[in-house]
Amino acid sequence: MTATTASRVLVLNSGSSSVKYQLLDMATGTRLAVGLVERIGEETSALSHHPLVTGGAKREWEGEIADHDAALKAVAEELDSDGLGLDSPELAAIGHRVVHGGLRFTEPTLIDDAVLKEIERLVPVAPLHNPANITGIRTAQRLRPDLPQVAVFDTAFHSSMPEHAARYAIDVRTADEHRIRRYGFHGTSHAYVSRKTAELLGRDPSEVNVIVLHLGNGASASAVAGGRCVDTSMGLTPLEGLVMGTRSGDIDPAVVFHLGRVAGMDMQEVDELLNKRSGLVGLCGDNDMREIRRRIDEGDETARLAFEIYIHRLKKYIGGYYAVLGRVDAVVFTAGVGENAAPVREAAIAGLEEFGLAVDKDLNAVRGDGARLISPEYARVKVAVVPTDEELEIAEQTYALVTAD
Ligand SMILES: Nc1ncnc2c1ncn2[C@@H]1O[C@H](COP(=O)(O)OP(=O)(O)O)[C@@H](O)[C@H]1O
Ligand SMILES: CC(=O)OP(=O)(O)O
Ligand SMILES: [Mg+2]
Q: 35 pairs with which residues across the strands?
């Protein structure tokens, strides 16, 4: 690869209705700008942009942002007005989060037409995510056709899973023909957070076993043994596993047939039901944990039951992965809910004292930005909050690829 003196990387983390972005200088380890576009395609979208080096204040505005293409143009304009535009010769590459990499992509990958085609082929198994990732790539390519664009896949970290964890117990030929298996997602987060947890414990990642609970709007759990993923809760698609903001997580697959045969729903309707009208929003009408906690505090029983279902599922995965790992050094909470919702952490760990797990109420209540332990001194298994940073992890992998000899 050509050597480059440019050392900035722009990272685009395009979600189903949002784009998170960061501009970083990899030579100095400085974050130059961070931002977020939310509610893309809805009546009022919101953009928040924070230039970190130009002394500028955080800028926030609301307006209509119809699609991801418009969102990226808005991001480019914000960066431009800080003198950090995409036309900068200091930009070395653009790193993209791509949710589904299938069987083929297990490493950060330089994007060309063939790679983009393969990412497109995977749209049916990440219908909420890969299309947004593709738009991000195309728009970035149009704005800077000369720059290397790198895809960092959510599935990559999980590709080390043993076959007994990755395979579903269905007819092998059908599974192989259609590449049906557990791929797992949020991999850059699970990789980053498990590594940071080892650091927090003052140990080498190869020595520690951790259960990572990535609880955002999408949510997943993983069992990481010595730095390697051995099981994860999301499957062929990001629908399986934990109860999420709008997704059901685990259900009996026969529910799908039943809805078809008895309720007369077609595939599209069932897909939409399970991905967009289930999870917390389906259970109580809200998918934001802040709002759910507020309602519980006011005595709302529907919100309480939704919370209890969410916690019950979490406990099942903590227990399950404890058994899979045999020995656990830490259970770690991360992402929007995991980092901020103390009641979720407390409830998920409650009653697990026999597992060596406990949460210290005071430590749990402390709000902080950094990685921290929330278990009492005596706890045999540590409980931690470790903020995730998918954008930093993507930037590092992107920069390593474009500067490799
Ligand atoms: N202070 C908070 N207390 C409780 N939950 C929070 C708080 N801040 C954010 N959240 C939760 O985090 C979610 C977003 O998490 P995030 O990791 O950003 O998700 P995603 O990347 O999937 O969009 C929100 O929907 C909300 O439920
Ligand atoms: C894969 C996935 O669920 O991602 P997100 O949490 O960003 O929706
Ligand atoms: Mg996320």
A: 21, 49
